[in-house]
């Protein structure tokens, strides 16, 4: 296998629409639009939002609405979902929503699809109701969606208007070998949630590549890996800024979620041994440091994984520091 160079990599943004302490979702959305324009100027390929529900620190519950807001405020960057949790919706409604987005912003909309509920079981019950076990229909629901998007559906009794005949790239998202097998069998690009679920990453991408069947959508396997990045002018500053994401993940581990906290001088005393172990395991694919440090670490990651694209998510408390982080990261890849 030919070794890839950093300059070969496409680079993109996953915006988790994080709500920070002392702010509201209104502030988050304004910052997202500013961030998307910044990313567009810096050469990022796409800007995605993930569907989450019932989380006080994540404001991307109405994912397709946010995608429209960002696409409307930018010019060239692709905007999409990483992902829409398909079992939460009917394929027809998703086809209509993304058909509308793709009609408004032609050639710029991506549809990443996940199987998980994007929330806790009680909230999943509130969303899915009678369709609580809809995750079992995930492969079939993707095929329904593809049918709604196809030109051949014009004589069907149920049609997606708008949506029919539009070229909207579908991605399979996942964090397990199951999703890898599905993406391979359907000949679709595969985006892995290595930013919080790194355990099966290497197994899954090997499975995907080994079993990939070319389709009309994609001739060769395409792997996108989502990673955590905190870049700053010095290693010391990046490590300090990264304490926000570390505290955030302690909240995930303990179930005590909080708005994104400001950075602290040290994590000593902020987590116990078990919390640190669990958080650091989830954060295995994280790049914290100066451009020089990130460049070396990222090249090593690329040598190991041979991914086609990295998608960066950055839980950084200060908005200007976050803009700077995305700027420094783009310089590493140019």
Automatic annotation (TrEMBL):
Residues 23-285 form the Luciferase-like domain. CDD domains: Flavin_utilizing_monoxygenases (cd00347). Pfam families: Bac_luciferase. One of its GO terms (molecular function) is oxidoreductase activity, acting on paired donors, with incorporation or reduction of molecular oxygen. One of its GO terms (cellular component) is cytosol. To bacterial alkanal monooxygenase alpha and beta chains. This is Luciferase-like monooxygenase. It comes from Mucilaginibacter polytrichastri.
